[in-house]
Design brief:
It comes from Stenomitos frigidus AS-A4. This is Restriction endonuclease. Helix 5 packs across helix 10. The longest helix is centred in the middle third of the chain and has 16 residues. Helices cover 36% and strands 17% of the residues. The protein is elongated. The C terminus is likely disordered. The protein folds into 2 domains: 105 residues, no CATH class; 162 residues, Restriction Endonuclease, CATH 3.40.91. A 5-stranded mixed beta sheet has the order 4-5-6-11-12, with helices on both faces. A 3-stranded antiparallel beta sheet has the order 1-2-3. Strands 7-8 form a two-stranded parallel ribbon. By secondary structure, it is an alpha/beta fold.
């Protein structure tokens, strides 16, 4: 497919193969030998690079596939590159992966067993116009959703997409069962070591004011919940043993002020302080959009263009 010796892919001679890899930000220069054999050797080199996370392909290899499948290289008989995508997926599916186009028309690779996305997009990169619109829709949804909806419709799909496993929501029906955490989950390192995470979720803003107002929550209110989270064991049915939480996420559907973070840091000892991770609305929205997740059902749908839209003033 890279050298174009199959349908739906442009043919590339020696110089164009070098040009292709240059577009992939790789310094591979074709040496004039058999095109397919040389290209196979280069791709094998990329596949031998370390995986960023478990069940994900190496980043530079994924970038090669993304350039290979760019829609600007569409053939006349395959204008949307769906036939090319089917060809690419034949070898990928045998290895447990599947390629697909996101809403941004870029290629993504998903591991079918864990749904992990290889080389997930950088959440700090500039957004496309379509992503900016989806981002605004998600922000409006976070303004009106409940805390349970924030957990079920946004956080659980997001953490699954980011490669966490055994994600379990405690729910809000029986507060006695929560022990200060709304979600617990685990993450498997490339070394196969397992880290356990507890997640404490608040819908509103977290600040360090004297009292809570409206949907805002005072950081002191979750201090005790945080200590409970780090001190209580959880049962992992997959390993059939009880374990302590290694790290605690404090997630807010709005802002977490700097004063709140500082106040909590002063209350915790050094060992517990290193276990705390913060995630506010900006982090949630950026990760959600760049992970190419579909918007929750309650999010505002794009408005239909009116006839006047075709004739801007």
């Amino acid at each position: 497919m890279v050298i174009g010796d199959t349908k739906h892919f442009p043919y590339r001679s020696s110089s164009y193969i070098t040009q292709f890899f240059d577009e992939c930000d790789l310094d591979f220069v074709h040496d004039g030998s058999t095109r397919w054999a040389w290209t196979v050797a280069r791709l094998e080199e990329l596949l031998q690079e370390p995986q960023p996370v478990a069940h994900a392909l190496p980043e530079r290899f994924v970038h090669v596939l993304r350039v290979l499948m760019h829609k600007s290289d569409a053939e006349p008989d395959d204008p949307d590159r769906q036939l090319a995508l089917e060809s690419l997926n034949k070898p990928l599916l045998r290895e447990g992966y599947e390629a697909f186009y996101g809403d941004d028309n870029l290629l993504y690779i998903r591991h079918n067993g864990t749904q992990t996305i290889s080389a997930a997009a950088n959440p700090h990169r500039p957004f496309t116009p379509g992503e900016i619109e989806r981002r605004q829709d998600l922000i409006e949804y976070l303004e009106k959703c409940s805390e349970d909806e924030l957990i079920e419709e946004v956080l659980l799909p997001l953490f699954r997409q980011l490669g966490y496993h055994r994600i379990t929501a405690a729910g809000h029906k029986d507060k006695a069962l929560e022990y200060g955490k709304d979600i617990w989950m685990r993450f498997i390192l490339p070394t196969q070591h397992v880290l356990y995470f507890g997640v404490q979720v608040k819908k509103g803003k977290l600040d360090a004011s004297g009292v809570s107002k409206g949907s805002n929550a005072n950081i002191a209110e979750i201090h005790n919940q945080l200590l409970m989270m780090l001190g209580h064991e959880i049962f992992d049915p997959e390993t059939n043993r009880r374990v302590l939480v290694d790290h605690a996420f404090i997630v807010a559907g709005s802002e977490i002020t700097k004063q709140a973070k500082n106040w909590l840091g002063e209350k915790l000892d050094v060992s517990k302080r290193s276990q705390i991770l913060f995630m506010d609305r900006e982090d949630i929205v950026n990760l959600y959009i760049t992970s190419n997740l579909p918007l929750p059902e309650g999010a505002r749908l794009p408005t239909q263009p009116s006839l006047d839209d075709d004739f801007p003033v």
